[in-house]
Specification:
Elements: E1 5-8, E2 19-22, E3 33-41, H1 42-45, E4 56-59, E5 62-66, E6 72-75, E7 82-85, H2 90-101
Antiparallel strand pairs: 1-2, 1-7, 2-3, 3-5, 3-6, 4-5
């Protein structure tokens, strides 16, 4: 398992969320759990208000959208099959996570 690997979602919401992308740094590979962000079918979400926060990707002819607000950790054994890697899109994923975690004052 490597950062930005995309795995099938074997969970009950797999129709709407066919994949998850691993975002956790390899610094924490010794832990049993991995931090992932769901890749939701664009058709489920409709119009994307902020493409920097919700970048789109095409995986197996399905357009999916990164959904950082649904970030979660899952045990390694719960991962589905590895489908591809978004390593070449890593900066877009990190930008979205930076937006999620940035300090903002009103």
């Amino acid at each position: 398992m490597a950062q930005f690997d995309v795995h099938r979602n074997p969970g009950k919401h797999r129709d709407d969320i066919p994949y998850v992308v691993l975002v956790q740094s390899s610094l924490y590979d010794n832990y049993r759990r991995r931090v992932v962000v769901p890749l939701v079918r664009k058709s489920v979400l409709g119009k994307i208000a902020n493409p920097r926060f919700n970048p789109s990707f095409r995986i197996e002819n399905i357009t999916v959208v990164l959904h950082p607000l649904e970030i979660v950790s899952v045990p390694r054994e719960a991962f589905g099959e590895r489908v591809t890697s978004l390593r070449n899109e890593g900066s877009r994923i990190i930008d979205a996570l930076d937006d999620l975690l940035t300090r903002a004052w009103e």
